[in-house]
Write a structure and sequence with these properties.
heteropentamer, A mainly alpha, B alpha/beta, C alpha/beta, D mainly alpha, E alpha/beta, A: mainly alpha, two-stranded antiparallel sheet, 2 strands, 2% strand, B: alpha/beta
């Protein structure tokens, strides 16, 4: 294949990956930004979204799009409730201590994985895409559903942005993020905001999971990769910075596609992992973040 | 050199005073139960991949093993003894698998262990089996055994190893599909077996591998690898495992469209996956290797019908009454057959208990093969006592109307290659 | 309209084993300004935080118009009508002026007229509504912090060193706002270190040391005997002499 | 002083009991105990960093694997005798620990956790990538003839269960006593001071970066010692020893037993290993228990079993 | 007295964003002095001594200690040279006993071989630590866990740790804050005793303590030196009174 179509394909793939990554990583980033905790179970919320999509597809009669739309509503809602419950039952009780949060969310990760294994089973399960249409380029075909993912991600990011900037709830969230004590001094129910933020973060991951599953399949171990990649994105983008997270997701999504043109994929993964570690060591505010103080 | 056990204190020097401490730690069930009486029952350790990456296989391996054991016991057991399965989960994890092997040996006191599938798990466990002097029958396709990497306690009496499979496929591929082949395989050991053996085999046929594309097993999206497929490719040879395989096949289809090269795949990619789903419609007309045909063929043997019924699988290879619950049909026969192979060896050696372990293993090595039967429903086998490896028929099937139809059955001779080791020269 | 009655009684607050408040208490009526003076570390800020519930006292009573607020979750205290200007202003620096005020307004769901009232006191803020509050000057930040607390529509207003580090002109406009606030019947507790900042507007002065109120005087007493100040604020008579 | 003596006596008592257990336990439990001792060494190494110095690493599988691969590859490719291979493993992990420590210790708290996780992930991927050497996920099996060695005329055979137990016991005993020494006296005081209050410790004239680096290196090297021992004893090296789960393992063991207690890692390892071993026969999802325990420990017993006992009843149990 | 210079700063500055916490300070301290630094809240006193001790990096300027430029040395090296710092907000090892707390400091001075005890034994370290603790009147609390001490005792422990370093210069940041009157009296004696071997730099709000201890007083305001002199001179200085009492008091 010539280099031009090659690059076109890599770009398309990169955009799709960037979209999914943006949603997942934004969830992680919003939680970190507001609560200053790292949620290691984030990938499992992604997985639950995908599994939820499969369950909806199983239970909903009628055309695939009906199950898909149902999943888009139901799966994030359930995941959000679960996350809020986890916040109430665990995180609140350890007072959002950063290290204890990491350990207990590792525990949560195992629990979710294993419960899904016991109920959903070990098989990878496919879900029908809501529509099938392959866009044929002269050199290769491309799934229109994948492009739909990109559009959906843009819409969702815009919605999140509106929620944060334009709504009363968003205002309370931002106030809590900047100064928890003062927020309390103005009657803001900080613990409810925290539960809400944790739920919203999880829902972002779940939506990404629903979107991805017609493309991949639902599997109980599928949360691992999105988690690591989200870490990468959130750190490179600057912890808690939303524009930085988006920029980093696009950068990493695109470069991942392009890097694999030149390197073997495992080597590319090693390189990006090391990059993250070194960014944290030498530029802890992230490539896009501004230094604090 | 005489190996000394100087560091091992004599068991007679048990200190009476330690009894209390022992009782403390040895909560009920912790101390290995002593074998009630030698010869009352044959206990077989069955480490299956209940969890981890191999879990969809493990579930069916377990079901098959249970069915075969029930049948053997119905027929009077082995040498008059009932067979008892001791099943443990190895998590598809090499570390855990070694521990499980020890547990079988030292705690459950099993007579033999069988049923491991994934080759990295086998690689970790086989040496430990040798040390524990535990007969270990694998169902894995791994070529490591026949290449001499293991020891005299390890056997593969049913499923044919990757090298044989590949060698027997290559002539048919080059004759029927094309000579310029692009390989797509997982970037780890199992994939390298395919790459190395197939490259050699297709070149022997006058063909060539125009590109080989290794994909990390953790990958979830594959489209970006496909541009590496050269335009000159006539055949894409693909073998993938793991949870992402369906995506792989689907994206391959989307990418190539209808006018792409021929596809030849190993069914490993689609084990436990329904074929007649819209995502896979483009596979129509492509070819697959099958270890055992998933769909009951027109010329189905009585043996296959019998086996299907006992394992609880319908004519489409899915669980009875649940068409979505597809089995790992192309591989799981090896568990059934391995049990019967063990039975045969034990009966030859008139096996009554672990004292006759060596006799049983020697009997196994002396076996020349097995005839197609209810015990060996996949077909006839030739067994090589030197390499501990079995050879059998391989099936090439074409996807027709969302079902696999066998197009070609290789002869057993097609799978032969020169011996690479001789385990009989090793000591027990 | 009845006069606000606010009473803090028997607060004991601990940080680990060390006691920051010892049987701390005061009384305050609507339309009155009580100034709390004391050295660094005397426990003034802890006292305010204990009232607000962000620091939890081990024991005490917190009466507002006959209702005991003690032990309520921190978010409930401001909702009952206590406005707070914390030390260092504690604006939401990334939020705009308008957003900061909005947060004050939503505390008790106060109407727009409250906002207008606050902005009339600090007209300079009107021009800056869409500016990020972190970019305001020090004086403007203090005004915003106070305006934000006023948006709560408070019965009681507590201010922790609102004039710290300000230019005299800014101090004056804050003082002016306090006077108007008092006139409207709000009960005001003003914490200060600098005596000069409080003398012009205080009705009573309380001196705090070691976590308790050591003495309380009417403003006239203090004006008549400045040595009281030196005695309690910690500048010795020798220094004055 | 007397407290330390009490603890030393307890350690010696535990060692005596452990040694004697091989005569009492069933052969499977002796095997299990062998493994427990090796994994306890891993956990003790982890404990030096997490328990005594207060630095929570999520990447210790990297050091375990460094020891495992350094020793295993030396034995596999160059036929280095086992004793030397073991030393090469220790040296290899020491080098890796110093390098990673120099970098990772520039960060703190959550960033430190993520940096160690990322380095470890890169190391794991490297074991896969260089599969021509490492054997990748399938790993390498050490040939049987490489499994015995000659120690002053005494041939020790690693395939022999009794030999294996006693070697594991010896290494465990050495590391336990080393940890005892390292966590007491001047060095131990430095560690605990850094854990308790790094800022203050610096203002008392300690170079806390160097103190942390020493702790990090010691911790990583002990973890690597466990790895080298594991690989040589069981004759298999593979990339699954470098994965994330193997980093969580010592954390879990230490957390359960009691971070910052000398015998906590042993207790935690023994309990968790036996628990998981029993559970895997009962349920397919035994990891769920690990998950629940992680949460339960953080919620109700963040100091682990021995840590709680120490705080309540026996302050000397450090 | 004619003093040898112990410490001097030239043009020392520290900016936080736009705020000049310490602004171009030239400061000299002689050996053997007890010097007090006073000034209103926010005058930059704590920042200033943090620059001396190396807790903060200076934005500009130099610090010279015993003729050596220490500006670029990290804090722990300055401590080893003999600059000890006790914190304004109590900063001790709350989980350790009093003896263990002070032992950390004693160990820092005695520098034992970290694994062996060739030169300095554990007993010596604890002996020295106990001595320092006793000086501050904590002799009968050696085995008490520091976090459970009363606030005043924690303050004294803080100073004991500084003392155990046997520094050439001991910087005390508001040491009497939260002490009772009798504790303050005892504390004054301690400082005088420390002064027999070390120079003392004292940040203090309690004017009584300042007046009775300090030989000289430096007044900081808005990051700059407002005045410097003997207690008597400072008492008479109108600018100082203004800084403390504000214009209204005049």
């Amino acid at each position: 294949m010539d280099i031009a179509p090659y690059l076109l394909l890599a770009t398309l793939e990169g955009l799709v990956q960037a979209s999914v990554l943006t949603l997942t990583a934004l969830g992680l980033s919003v939680v970190f930004g507001t609560m200053r905790v790292v949620n290691v179970a984030h990938g499992e919320f992604f997985m639950l979204g995908a599994v939820g999509a499969w369950v909806c597809a199983m239970l909903m009669p009628g055309p695939p799009w009906l199950g898909f739309v149902t999943a888009l509503i139901v799966a994030p809602a359930i995941v959000g409730l679960l996350a809020a419950a986890a916040d109430w039952a665990i995180l609140k009780r350890i007072d959002y201590d950063p290290e204890a949060t990491i350990i207990s969310t590792i525990g949560l990760m195992y629990i979710i994985q294993q419960v899904v294994l016991m109920t959903f089973g070990p098989n990878a399960q496919a879900v029908d895409a809501p529509f099938y249409y392959t866009i044929r380029f002269p050199w290769f075909g491309y799934s229109s559903y994948k492009l739909f993912i990109v559009v959906a991600a843009i819409v969702l990011v815009f919605a999140l942005w509106r929620l944060m900037k334009g709504s009363r709830v968003g205002l309370l969230m931002r106030a809590t993020q900047y100064d928890k004590d003062t927020a309390q001094n103005f009657g803001i129910p900080v613990d409810r905001v925290y539960s809400g933020v944790f739920a919203v973060g999880a829902m972002m991951a779940a939506i990404a999971g629903v979107l991805v599953v017609p493309n991949q399949q639902a599997h109980y171990l599928m949360g691992h990769d999105p988690l690591l990649l989200s870490f990468v994105v959130v750190i490179v983008g600057g912890l808690g910075s939303i524009p930085g997270t988006i920029a980093a997701a696009v950068l990493i999504g695109l470069s991942d596609g392009l890097l694999s043109v030149f390197f073997t994929p495992t080597l590319a993964k090693i390189a990006s992992t090391l990059l993250v570690a070194l960014v944290l060591v030498f530029k802890p505010e992230g490539l896009f973040g501004k230094a604090t103080r | 050199m005489k190996k000394s056990a100087l560091l091992l204190p004599s068991r007679r020097s048990v200190l009476a005073g330690m009894g209390g401490a022992a009782a403390l730690l040895a909560a009920p069930g912790l101390v290995g139960r002593a074998r009630a009486q030698s010869g009352d029952v044959i206990r077989l350790g069955a480490p299956f991949h209940r969890t981890g990456i191999g879990a969809s296989y493990g579930r069916w391996y377990e079901q098959t093993a249970k069915a075969a054991t029930a049948l053997i016991n119905e027929q009077g057991g082995i040498n008059g003894m009932q067979v008892e399965l001791v099943i443990e989960d190895d998590g598809t994890d090499p570390k855990r698998s070694v521990e499980v092997m020890e547990k079988f040996s030292a705690e459950h006191n099993v007579d033999a262990v069988f049923g491991t599938l994934f080759s990295h798990v086998v690689a970790a466990t086989a040496p430990r089996a040798g040390e524990l002097k535990m007969p270990y029958f694998i169902c894995s396709e791994s070529h490591a055994l026949a290449s001499g990497a293991f020891n005299r306690y390890v056997f593969q009496p049913s499923i044919t190893d990757v090298k044989s499979q590949v060698i027997s496929m290559a002539p048919w591929i080059s004759d029927n599909l094309g000579k310029k082949v692009t390989l797509i395989y997982p970037d780890y050991a199992f994939g390298y077996d395919h790459r190395d053996n197939f490259t050699a085999a297709i070149e022997a046929q006058g063909g060539e591998v125009v590109a080989d594309i290794a994909i990390p097993p953790t990958e979830t999206s594959f489209t970006r690898y496909f541009p590496k497929i050269p335009f000159s490719t006539e055949v894409i040879y693909h073998v993938m495992v793991g949870p992402g395989v369906l995506t792989f096949v689907k994206e391959l289809g989307e990418h190539l469209g209808s006018q792409g090269p021929e596809l030849f795949g190993f069914i490993d990619s689609l084990e436990a996956v329904q074929l007649d789903i819209p995502q896979l419609s483009f596979l129509e007309g492509s070819h697959f290797w099958e270890g055992n045909p998933r769909y009951a063929q027109a010329d189905q043997t009585d043996f296959d019908a019998f086996y299907r019924e006992k394992v609880g699988v319908d004519e489409n290879g899915a669980a009875m009454g649940d068409p979505k619950n597809v089995s790992t049909y192309a591989h799981m026969f090896s568990v059934w057959e391995t049990l019967y192979a063990m039975k045969a060896a034990m009966e030859m050696a008139d096996y009554k208990g672990p004292d006759q372990k060596v006799a049983m293993l020697e009997a196994m090595e002396s076996i020349q093969g097995f005839d197609a039967s209810n015990a060996f429903p996949q077909g006839q086998k030739v067994f090589n006592g030197k390499t501990h490896q079995s050879f059998g028929h391989q099936y090439i099937s074409k996807v027709v109307d969302g079902k696999l139809e066998v197009q070609h059955t290789t002869s057993i001779e097609d799978t032969f290659y020169p011996d690479e080791t001789d385990y009989t020269k090793m000591s027990f | 309209m009845s006069v606000t009655q606010f009473k803090v009684e028997g607060f004991n607050t601990f940080y680990g084993r060390s006691q920051a408040l010892r049987d701390f208490g005061f009384e305050l009526k609507g339309g009155e300004v009580l100034c709390l003076l004391g050295r660094n570390g005397a426990g003034k800020t802890t006292a305010l935080q204990s009232v607000m519930g962000t620091v939890k006292p081990a024991s005490g009573q917190l009466m507002l118009n006959g209702e005991n607020l003690f032990g309520l979750p921190a978010k409930e205290i401001p909702r009952r009508g206590i406005g707070y200007v914390p030390q260092g202003r504690r604006l939401f620096a990334e939020l705009t002026v308008a957003e900061n005020l909005e947060i004050g307004l939503q505390t008790r769901k106060a109407g727009r007229e409250v906002l207008d009232y606050a902005l009339d006191l600090f007209p300079v803020l009107k021009e800056r509504m869409d500016q990020r509050s972190g970019t305001l000057s020090g004086g403007e930040q203090s005004m915003l912090s106070m305006a934000r607390a006023m948006c709560v529509d408070p019965l009681v207003m507590m201010l922790d060193e609102p004039t710290e580090g300000l230019m005299p002109s800014a101090i004056a406009s804050i003082r002016e706002a306090l006077v108007k606030l008092r006139a409207s019947g709000v009960a005001i507790l003003l914490v200060e270190q600098r005596v000069d900042a409080v003398l012009p507007i205080a009705d009573r002065v309380a001196f705090m040391d070691h976590g308790r109120i050591k003495a309380e005087f009417g403003i006239d007493e203090v004006r008549n005997d400045l040595s009281l100040l030196h005695q309690y604020v910690g500048v010795s008579d020798k220094a004055k002499a | 002083m007397t407290n330390d003596r009490k603890l030393l006596l307890l350690c010696l008592g535990v060692l005596a009991i452990l040694f004697a257990l091989q005569f009492v336990l069933s052969s499977y439990l002796v095997l299990a105990l062998t493994r427990i001792l090796i994994l306890s060494v891993f956990a003790m190494g982890y404990n030096i960093l997490m328990g005594y110095t207060g630095l929570l690493s999520l990447g210790h599988a990297m050091f375990f694997a460094a020891g495992l691969y350094a020793s295993g590859l030396a034995s596999y490719y160059w036929g280095v005798p086992l004793g030397w291979a073991f030393l090469i493993g220790i040296a290899g992990s020491a080098v890796v620990s110093v390098i990673i420590g120099l970098l990772a210790l520039r960060t703190e708290a959550v960033a430190f956790m993520i940096v160690t996780l990322m380095f470890s992930q890169a190391a794991f991927l490297a074991t896969l990538h260089f599969s021509k050497i490492t054997g990748g996920d399938q790993g390498l099996t050490l040939p049987t003839e490489a499994r015995s060695f000659d120690l002053f005329g005494l041939v020790l055979d690693m395939t022999h269960d009794g030999t294996r137990f006693n070697i594991a016991f010896t290494v465990f005993a050495v590391v336990l006593l080393l940890t005892y020494v390292a966590t007491r006296g001047p060095f131990g005081r430095q560690l605990v001071a850094v854990r308790g209050n790094p800022g203050r410790t610096e203002m008392l004239g300690f170079n806390i970066y160097i103190v942390k680096l020493m702790a990090f290196t010691l911790s990583g090297t002990i973890a690597g010692t466990a790895g080298a021992l594991y690989g040589l004893m069981f004759g298999y090296i593979g990339s699954s020893f470098a994965d994330f789960q193997n980093s969580i393992q010592p954390l879990l063991f230490t957390l359960v037993g009691g971070p910052g207690t000398l015998l906590g890692p042993l207790l935690g390892t023994a309990l968790m290993t036996m628990l998981i071993d029993r559970l895997s026969g009962l349920t397919t999802a035994y990891l769920i228990v690990v998950g629940v325990l992680l949460i339960v420990m953080t919620l109700w017993a963040p100091k682990g079993i021995l840590g709680t006992i120490r705080d309540k009843w026996a302050r000397w149990l450090n | 007295m004619a003093e040898l210079s112990l410490l001097k700063t030239r043009g020392l500055s520290r900016h936080f964003g736009g705020l000049k916490a310490v602004d171009d300070v030239d400061f000299d301290l002689g050996q053997g002095e007890i010097r007090a630094i006073i000034g209103p809240n926010g005058a930059g006193k704590s920042t200033f001594v943090s620059l001396l001790s190396g807790r903060y990096k200076a934005s500009a300027g130099t610090v010279e200690f015993l003729g050596q430029d220490v500006s670029s040395l990290p804090a722990f090296r300055r401590v080893r040279l003999g600059i000890a710092y006790t914190f304004q907000i109590t900063n001790i090892y709350t989980a350790m006993t009093v003896l263990e707390n002070v032992s950390v400091a004693a160990q820092s001075r005695l520098k034992p071989n970290i694994f062996g005890h060739r030169h300095v034994t554990e007993a010596t370290i604890e002996e020295e630590a106990a001595k320092a603790a006793a000086t501050l009147g904590l002799g009968d609390m050696l085995d008490v866990v520091a976090g459970t001490l009363a606030y005043g005792h924690q303050r004294l422990l803080e100073v004991a740790m500084g003392l155990a370093l046997e520094p050439k210069l001991l910087i005390l940041d508001e040491p009497t804050q939260g002490l009772s009157d009798s504790e303050i009296e005892n504390f004054k004696d301690v400082v005088r005793k420390i002064n027999e071997t070390a120079t003392v730099l004292l940040i203090e709000h309690n004017m009584d303590v300042v007046m009775s201890l300090a030989e000289r007083i430096t007044v900081l305001d808005r990051g700059q030196i407002l005045a410097e002199g003997t207690p008597a001179e400072i008492s008479d200085n109108r600018a100082v009174q203004a800084a403390y009492l504000g214009e209204a008091a005049e």
